[in-house]
Design a protein that fits this description.
The complex is a heterodimer of chains A (172) and B (344). With 172 residues, chain A is an alpha+beta fold. Chain A has helices spanning 12-16, 18-33, 73-77, 115-119, 145-155, and strands at 56-58, 83-89, 98-106, 125-127, 142-143. Chain A has a domain at 56-155: Alpha-Beta Plaits (2-Layer Sandwich). Chain B starts with a helix and ends with a helix.
Chain lengths: 172, 344
């Protein structure tokens, strides 16, 4: 086995140190004038990129019916077992016959993997870009059906953080 | 001394003291902001416009904190140590001229608290006393980290004070006086008559030694928060810690002022004769002094966030094997030049 050794004899110029020191000072000075990376969080919010997996939502049809048919594919796909669904007969005439009576997601259990949205045959459950949801109790982080529908209302037309129109973006 | 003279001295003392403390506050703010900027952050910007009131908030926080004296400390020395460090740091500024003389009501007032004829000796003596504060704080704390910090500080002192003193000696050789006013007068005139250009080697040695003297990075071995928790002030809290903190900044101010006085012509504004312009010239000279000092204070912070800390043995090696011989060589050359000049 060959051992590669690299030896470096410092020249007199190197041993003076001052050229290197000045070079170092210039690096920090450059950073002094550079644009700062800080996002001053509550005042300005980080806008996540497309495809970010944040808080869930339950989609609706334009006429207001819930897309979900309570097939429980999502809860079966969920690796963290955080989706609890109680199916029931849909209250509205026509269209789908089943709908979720109860649709709870335990956000503390959820790992935000996005398997639920992939498993969903109706494109009913989706992950939004919302990342700053926090609460003072465990109960508050158990989001129910109404809560998920509310998230849909918040995010259906525009990006929650940048307030840009979502409809202009190509559907993925 | 007449009564008016007494009042003038009193006013000067108050002005210098207030200015030093104000600069300490500005420095605390500047240090946090500049360090943040150099790391791509914003730093404190919430308290007051642009965060300018942050040092006051810090001060209030220090005052409100619990004053805790650990068991097993040598109490009298433990309490005395911060004062030993802070008082000389504030006293040093007394001999530094921060402007040419001002004329009010036909009376000429020198902008300097005390014109001591051994000004440089006074400064060197006082800065050496300051180190005792660190050593005693480390020793009296009865903590291994503090002790190591104090020990390192004393080792640092002996390896740097010599080189620093010798660098100053070459300046004294040029001016032929220990009085700071004479040293400034010696540098008056053209830009190139400043001592940096006459004594570049002494300037470099002095600058490096001053960083060791003020316990600033890259020579903050006595503090070394990564290895020694907090170094000599590990066991201190509340206002006593704040006193160490203030002393560090006060030392920086004096060090910057001394560097300006010895090597950058003091209050000399390049290419302008201040004494000809009356009181406007004085204002100009004070401005020049503040600007020069500000640059060196910025350099202190700038260097802190650029260079890593020296190892213990590297510091000793640099002090004894590089700086001391270079300083001696510099004195030899300067003295030789002066001798030849006086003979020829």
């Amino acid at each position: 086995m060959a051992i590669i050794t690299k030896s470096y004899e410092p020249t007199f110029w190197d041993r003076l140190y001052f050229p290197a020191l000045i070079k170092g000072l210039m690096v920090t000075l450059r950073y002094f004038f550079k644009r700062k990376v800080t996002i001053q969080y509550p005042d300005e919010k980080y806008v996540p990129p497309d495809g970010y997996r944040g808080l869930h939502r339950l989609n609706k049809y334009p006429d207001g019916r819930i897309r979900c048919v309570a097939c429980e594919m999502c809860s079966a796909a969920c690796p963290a077992d955080c989706i609890y669904i109680v199916p029931g007969p849909a209250p509205w005439e026509g269209g789908k016959e089943r709908y979720p009576v109860k649709f709870d997601i335990d956000l503390l259990k959820c790992i935000f993997c996005g398997f639920c949205e992939m498993a969903c045959p109706e494109e009913a459950i989706e992950l939004t870009e919302i990342y700053d949801f926090s609460a003072y109790s465990r109960e508050d982080l158990l989001i129910d059906r109404e809560g998920l529908l509310e998230v849909y209302e918040l995010t259906k037309n525009q990006n929650y953080y940048s307030r840009t129109d979502k409809s202009k973006k190509p559907a993925t | 001394m007449d009564f008016l003279g007494f009042i003038i001295i009193l006013v000067k003392v108050l002005v210098v003291f207030a200015a030093t403390m104000l600069t300490v506050l500005i420095l605390i703010y500047a240090e946090r902001r500049v360090s943040a900027f150099m790391q791509g952050r914003l730093g404190p910007n919430r308290v007051g416009p642009k965060g300018i009131l942050q040092p006051i908030a810090d001060g209030i926080k220090f005052l409100m904190k619990e004053e805790f004296i650990p068991a097993g400390v040598d109490k009298p020395i433990f309490i005395l140590a911060p004062a030993i460090l802070l008082i000389p740091a504030l006293m040093t500024f007394a001999v530094i001229p921060f402007g040419s003389s001002i004329t009010i009501l036909g009376r000429e007032i020198a902008l300097q608290v005390a014109d001591v004829n051994v000004g440089i000796l006074y400064i060197l003596a006082l800065t050496s006393i300051g180190v005792y504060g660190i050593v005693l704080a480390g020793w009296s704390s009865n903590s291994k980290y503090s002790l190591l910090g104090g020990l390192r500080s004393s080792a640092q002192l002996i390896s740097y004070e010599l080189a620093m003193g010798l660098a100053v000696v070459s300046i004294i050789l040029l001016s032929g006086s220990l009085k700071l006013n004479d040293i400034i007068a010696d540098q008056q005139g053209y830009f190139l008559s400043w001592n940096v250009f006459k004594q570049p080697l002494a300037f470099v040695i002095f600058l490096v030694a001053v960083y060791a003297e003020t316990n600033r990075l890259p020579f903050d071995l006595s503090e070394a928060e990564q290895e020694l928790v907090g170094g000599y002030h590990t066991e201190y809290s509340s206002m006593k810690f704040a006193m160490f903190f203030m002393a560090e900044y006060a030392n920086m101010i004096t060090a910057a002022a001394l560097t300006v006085t010895l090597f950058f012509g003091g209050w000399d504004f390049p290419l302008i004769n201040e004494t000809m312009l009356g009181n406007w010239g004085t204002a100009l000279s004070v401005l020049a002094f503040i600007l020069k000092m500000g640059f060196f204070l910025f350099l202190f912070i700038w260097v802190r966030w650029t260079f890593p800390r020296f190892r213990y043995d590297q510091l000793m090696k640099l002090g004894w094997k590089v700086m001391l011989p270079t300083a001696l060589f510099n004195i030899f050359v300067t003295a030789g030049y002066l001798t030849i000049k006086s003979v020829v």
